[in-house]
Amino acid sequence: MTSHVVGYPRMGPKRELKFALESMWDGKTQAADLEQVAKDLRASIWKQMSEAGVSMIPSNTFSYYDQVLDTTAMVGAVPARYGWTGGEIGHDVYFSMARGNKTKPAMEMTKWFDTNYHYIVPELSGETKFVYSSRKAVSEYKEAKELGVDTVPVLIGPVTYLLLSKGDKSAPKGFNTLSLLDAILPVYKEVITELKEAGASWIQLDEPKLVMDLEASQYEAFKKAYAVLGEVAQVKLLVETYFTDLPAEAYKTLCDLPIAGFGVDLVRGNKTLSLIKEHGLPEGKTLFAGVVDGRNIWANDLAASVAVVEELQAKLGKDNVVVSTSCSLLHSAVDLKNETKLDSELKSWMAFAAQKLLEVVAVAKAVSGQKDEAFFAANASAQESRRNSPRVHNKAVKEAAAALAGSEHRRSTPVSSRLEQQQKYLNLPILPTTTIGSFPQTPELRRVRREVKSKKISEEDYDKAIKAEIDSVVKLQEELDIDVLVHGEPERNDMVEYFGEQLDGFCFSANGWVQSYGSRCVKPPIIFGDVSRPKAMTVYWSTYAQSVTKRPIKGMLTGPVTILNWSFVRNDQPRSETCYQISLAIKDEVEDLEKANITVIQIDEAALREGLPLRKSEHADYLRWAVHGFRITTCGVKDTTQIHTHMCYSNFNDIIHSIIDMDADVITIENSRSDEKLLSVFREGVHYGAGIGPGVYDIHSPRIPPTEEMADRARKMLAVLESKVLWINPDCGLKTRKYAEVVPALTNMVNAAKQLRAELAN
Ligand SMILES: [Zn+2]
Questions:
Q1: Is the residue at 314 inside a domain?
Q2: Residue-wise pLDDT tens digits, 356-377
Q3: Of 172, 299, 423, 590, which one has the fewest beta carbons inside 10 Å?
Q4: In whole numbers, what is the pLDDT of the chain averaged over residues?
Q5: ∠ CA 109-110-111 to the nearest 5 degrees?
Q6: β-pairing, 321-325 with 286-292?
């Protein structure tokens, strides 16, 4: 039986591509050095897949930055500002689009569906002329062939590409990028023809947009596109979909397209399987059954996958099913082989991309009667040990989480009267100023944290160094005359990892990196067991900070939904259950901070919005348990304890009622980068009774905003919000900035607040 892999991580097992890219960008190495690293990586990936026995091996899933940007290069859709005048697109133009250059900013970047991978958003207009301008797909196909590997070249499909694009500045409002379909198809046809001539027998076109809620005209675009591409004779087209269930209409569309096969995600969502069983498959089409999870790091339950594939075969015919991954393995970690920190039992429960290749092949072989008994036996015993391990299952935690059902966990006093009681304690001026939490992270701080971990310095020296940093951050804020202070988070490496390291049920890999964008990778914590908090996590530093100032210090916590969304989560229980367990741990921390006389506590939910499911029909359920998870953390505090939350984005007009339902006393939000989009929701009459601090200062840029500019931003807010609820603060934490930028910017921010207070007093 045939095995297939949708795509593979490109960074390399030790992030080789990252270091090669950054070294070239810094001018330390030449383009030729980068190209050699890239070529070696591609060769090793193809060799690995071929040795594993994968029958359909992808090519062109490698990228120097992003596969959507590669497609922009392929079709020559370079925005005019980069001065490209035609010909094959080289590194200069490519990296200018990705990262900007001395004179031109980069193109916009956004999240790839509901993953933490980001792509470069194509900018199109009615004037865009598509020209075949990057032969990367063909050259990678040939490169593999020279190494003796016949691959399946992978392209982003034309309809998904256009739907992911946006109208550029010249495009009229409401410009429909799909209107360019006729114009882009000839380039795709040219590429497919050239790939066929180079010897490719299958070509994979990724069309993940098919899993989304689409309109009739969008389904029509798929029919039109594949009617044209299907005209290229003697090559089989595979349309790949992933990330959730297919809507029935999409399934029907795929069945009708003149293509040889299509791929479905059978891991995330459980409705596609019923669609297949109900409707079957038209004669001559092949189903690529994505049974190995590309979004996680858990070992596949091989026996369960074999059962699914056998069921499909019985329904569709033996030769019409191919075993595949649920999506590209880009979203998993690379290779478990390099893990030195995880013990052997934990490792036996896991599979990174390299191990997932073996799983795909093992399932395919087993279905064709060549079952690797030893491999299956080892897998079954690992599954069994994970199901029963006391490291995974904690009865007390499960009981506490189960006891949450049926309660709303709301604070009993309404927010307006809580705010009045808090003000009696806090005695803050009108338009109070604060920051979001972190202060600049200096190399010195990173050194101190590294050295205490490796025991190069003693705990006492570490303690002294962190306290000295807190002293100076608190003193600075007092000098700046900020009203609600923070301790600056010098002890924290990362807002999720810091908590994960102190909670039971989490583990950390040494090399489990996943590409986030360009050369940037993240190493998500792994939640493997029931979550509990052995002891207080932040009380020590927060109380120290409070001991050196009379002004209120904000206790700083990461919220349960954000911890959940930025980790690799368990696949043996619903996400909501894991979220509730984390909520209970954070609730204990909140109450310990309160007992220690910290009366302002911020619980960040930076990632609440990004956890929204892809399909609208699933939003309400997610928001219900996510918002409930947040309320669990705060429902036990006194009315006089002020709960803040923070969100790093402003496009929440569609979820504003869920945000209100979180019932925080004060919310701080990104606002300055997005043209005050946020304020439109209040203009439209939504009433927000709690305190609110839309950011007046964009911390993502080194630019120092002048006082008048920040005052102006706040004046716009005052036009739609009452002065007694408005806070003045930056957009986000300051850890990526330098003190040389932060000090003058915060000085201007406080001056802006004082200027407005004077205006309001008149
Ligand atoms: Zn933020």
A1: no
A2: 999 999 999 999 999 999 999 9
A3: 172
A4: 96
A5: 140
A6: parallel
